[in-house]
Amino acid sequence: MLKRYLVGLAMAVTIGVGGAQAQVKIANIAELSGAGAAAGTVWKDGVDLAVDEINASGGILGQHIELMEYDSQTDPQNSRAMVQKAIDDGAYVLLGTVYSSSTVVNMLVAQQNGYPQLTGSEAPAITQKGNPFIFRTAFGSQKGMPKIGAYLSFGLKASKVAIVWANTEYGKGGHDAFVDVTKEFNLEIAADLPTEQGQADFSADVVKIKNSGADAVFAFMTEEESARFLIEAEKQGLELPIAGDTVLGSQKVIDLAGAAAEGVMSHVGLSADAPVPTIQAMDKKFTERFGYRPDHNAIKGYIGAYAIKYVTEMVGEFDRQKFADTMHGLCLQAKEYPGLLLDICWDQNGEVSRESFLVQVTNGQQQIVQTLPAN
Known about the structure:
This protein is 42% helix and 20% strand. It has helices spanning 2-15, 37-56, 76-88, 100-113, 145-155, 169-184, 203-210, 223-235, 251-257, 277-290, 296-315, 320-327; strands spanning 23-30, 64-71, 93-95, 117-119, 134-136, 160-166, 188-195, 216-220, 242-244, 265-268, 331-332, 344-346, 352-353, 356-362, 365-372. Strand 9, helix 9 and strand 10 form a beta-alpha-beta unit. Helix 8 crosses helix 9 and helix 11 (296-315) packs across helix 12 (320-327). 53% of the residues are buried.
């Protein structure tokens, strides 16, 4: 009897019981200010929506979620401090960050402490470092590059491509993965233009592209930089087709760039316009609550919160090591786990596999051109 009491007491301490209603603490570390706020705030809203739904339906294993929020300020070292603070504050599992340059730094703290971390970051390196506690909520950018290369080569019949990319952990990962793909599809790189985080002036980059002889552009930057580039490209009359990965055709970039985003082609892992009933239902709830449509980051945050619920309930207890062990090699179907929105698998490195979409921006919205199989 004494042993049973002590086990129960330890469980109560682990999950942060307070008063009559036990609660499990989940930490969300996101870019709520700084250059990444456009991405981090929508991720936060997606998490908030999912957590409120989970609590309304009884929580996780009968415990309501106490969501603790931390602002990384889009600063890798501050994000590392916030992860440590979340651990010190008694979090069960961590959500975030979105920016890869922060995640590659702060995930080491989570790993050293044995804390599962569900991130929205897409840099290839994140799941290539052998960290058994990191898990994506969207696949890494390297998985989309073969699909973009095929579109440029076979769809656009392009032979020379100009690359404009963010010189950050996220951007470099995407750039390097795309360069590898150009070799596979015999695409010549006519211009290779790194840009800085928070860059405001893209006039010189657009001039270089116009003079490069390229017949298509591959753009790989974060939301605000992508929008600024598109606006400058339109201003200078750049008539080349512009393609990119999830961010370029995201709703946030469409909202920021306006008419300059028209015609952009993008391979996206998650889209509110996907012809998937579970995503359309989430889109409706999100839009009614926050007054704007969710982009891929909002959907990623939503999926992350539900993944914590489902995996914990599969484990049957709040055990971080068992949580991580269960996620490796796990495949879940949306018809049984609707909060995940799409069928999804995690491999032994925490990398994600699921369907994706080729979209074109038309009349200020993403138009799904093709649904692509998981790879």
